[in-house]
Write a structure and sequence with these properties.
The chain is of the alpha+beta class and 234 residues long. 34% of the residues lie in helices and 32% in strands. Strands 1-2-3-4-5-7-8-9 form an 8-stranded antiparallel β-barrel. It starts with a helix and ends in a 6-residue tail after the last strand. It is found in: Plastid.
Length: 234
């Protein structure tokens, strides 16, 4: 009987593994379906810039369903957070106000790098701007787009907990296509002082993270959906 115990134990483990396999496959299928739906809806509303109330509600429901399936419980400790990300969708007023700029909006990206300390990150938020009608008129007529001007804002991010990063904007740059960039950055003492002043009231909470998609929320529950940028996307 004692000789049967290891075999019975192995059989139990195998049965548990077999029972979990369909559930894992179903979860992966649900996540893939929700991600595809979210990306398509985001494209339909031009990253949120043309979203009406009904579209925003549908996208919010899509995001909440995806958040419920998040498996990364500590994204601020995950290497997946690092890298170059492109904005798919947002309902945040500060980003959507970019539509008031008299220019054609190109890529809106966030590059996340490890910071100077283990509990910090450096994020660069950048938007590409081209002359109006670059895509609809200039490109069809002349077969090319004018090179973009890139406006970038630098943020110092510090870990508040497993999901939340504080944000302090510490500099910016304007990068014309030909001329040298114009940049400005705060000294480190000023950055530390700002973190102390805001005390984490300005933050981003990562609510979903996998290999190629990230969802984050701000203090007002505003939504940011971003897809990882690969070399093929450049």
């Amino acid at each position: 009987a004692t000789q049967l115990l290891p075999s019975m134990s192995m059989l139990s483990v195998s049965l548990v593994a077999l029972s979990l396999a369909p559930a894992a496959a179903l979860l992966a299928s649900d996540v893939a379906s929700l991600k595809a739906s979210l990306r398509q809806r985001s494209t339909d509303v031009e990253r949120g810039f043309s979203a009406d109330r009904a579209a925003k509600q549908a996208l919010a429901a899509n995001v909440e369903a995806l958040e419920a399936l998040n498996e990364d419980e500590a994204p601020t400790k995950s290497g997946k957070l690092l890298g170059d990300w492109a904005l798919d969708y947002t309902d945040a007023a500060d980003v959507l106000s970019l539509k008031l700029v008299l220019a054609e909006l190109g890529a809106i990206r966030q590059d996340v790098k490890a910071g100077a300390t283990p509990d910090s990150f450096a994020a660069t938020n950048a938007v590409e701007l081209r002359p109006l009608l670059s895509s609809s008129v200039l490109s069809p007529l002349f077969g090319l787009k004018p090179p973009p001007v890139t406006y970038a804002v630098e943020a110092d991010c510090r870990v508040l907990d497993d999901t939340k990063l504080s944000l302090v904007f510490v500099g910016g740059a304007l990068r014309p296509p030909v001329l040298p960039p114009l940049a400005l950055a705060l000294p480190s003492r000023a950055v530390d002082a700002l973190h102390g002043l805001f005390q984490g009231r300005v933050y981003l909470r990562t609510t979903f993270l996998d290999d190629d998609l990230r969802v984050a929320r701000g203090p007002g529950r505003e939504i940011y959906v971003l897809s990882r940028v690969t070399e093929n996307d450049f």
